[in-house]
Amino acid sequence: MPVTTGVVLHDVRGGHPSLSWSICRGDVAVNISSVYLLQSVYLLSFMLGKGHNSILFKPLIAPTPPTSIAVVHYLTMSTTTTTTTTAFAVDKEAKERQVATKFETKDLVTFDENTVYGDWRDEFHKNGCVLIKGVITPEKAKYYADKQIQWLKNFELGFDENDPSTWTAEHLPVSFKGGMYFAYGSTHEKMAWEARSEPAIIDIFTKLWGTNELITSFDGMNISLPDRKDLNWSPWPHCDQNPRRKGMQAVQGLLNYSPNGPKDGGLMLMKGSAKLFNEFFSHKRESADHEDAPPPELEYMDLFLFSEKDLEWFKERGCEMFKVDMEPGDFVLWDSRTIHYARLPEGNQIRNVQYICMTPRKFAEPDALEAKKYCFENFIGTTHWPHCNIRVVTDKPMRNDEVCPKYRTEPFEKPEVNDTILKLAGVKPYN
């Protein structure tokens, strides 16, 4: 069969257009799974064959794009291979406008520093972080910890929580930093939504933001096994807020399920670093050259990695890095400007936590809510940001340079969707 070539043109002008795709020449059979530009992600899936010269349809999700962009795909097909090359032509001013509107430059909620709350909020606003004791019962925490262990066993890779010889990568689903799980539909497991829906958790974020009309992140969990011999691990002090965002924009949370003492690994926080965020980034700073640094093209990511020199800058100004020790049922909050990282366990206790972040629904633009709806309906996770930076894309876990054979797109146990979940997901309005 001779090589056949065709061209697909995508022209966007304005807000929420339909997409017109046409084959210029040839009999083309191609499957395009995604087109990715800046923060606008179009998920498309179609097959063009002989006799099908054009398709007109709406994108599954279309965040506001630049005013003018042309994407050209050159598609070449033979009997055995398909090659796709994508060229972007972007209006520079439009790109700058998009970036300018993407990053808020002040607190989304104004807090009076002189206000005395008489509860955990006083410590939070002073230090940028706080530990809240006994948010759920130890019995409920054990329920969640057991659910997480069962989740690992569901992959049938030979993991046994009572046999440390199975606490290796070959017996576990693929994770980040030795225990953070974001793939396999895990962010929408029933246990994750049960944790997000805990009344005491919702109450914490209600008090923090001054509203009960909240939306949640579709964040992951951490199941860290101690004494891993197969891991090369290094500290990665970072903050989860892009330097171009100024002020308090998000507050992250962690619900702890297992005993977590000084030797059990866990959350490291730099007390007081959030208040120095603007001062530190008033000068040009470069993210540390670290193995976990995102590629340069992902400049939109809300992640900045700090070097040892950077940490010294904060320490000289009175900031202190400390390990958060927790009991089952405790909850810790930290401003996303706070420097932090997760440390691996050194003792013999498995670490079990669920990451939870909520912000007011009013922070979210319509496009973000539309994206969240798509993610919710398709079991796609997000970062810790509930109201922005929603990427409608699934990163497949890789094992030995190939997609993990156990890769799945749905949770093992789907949530029992109710009114609370729909509102927290951003799918259903509060009024």
UniProtKB/TrEMBL annotation:
Signal peptide from the UniProt entry: none
InterPro entries associated with the record: Phytyl_CoA_dOase-like
Any Pfam family the entry gives: PhyH
Superkingdom of the source species: Eukaryota
Entries under PANTHER family matching the protein: PHYTANOYL-COA DIOXYGENASE-RELATED, PHYTANOYL-COA DIOXYGENASE-RELATED-RELATED
Name of the protein described by the UniProt record: Phytanoyl-CoA dioxygenase
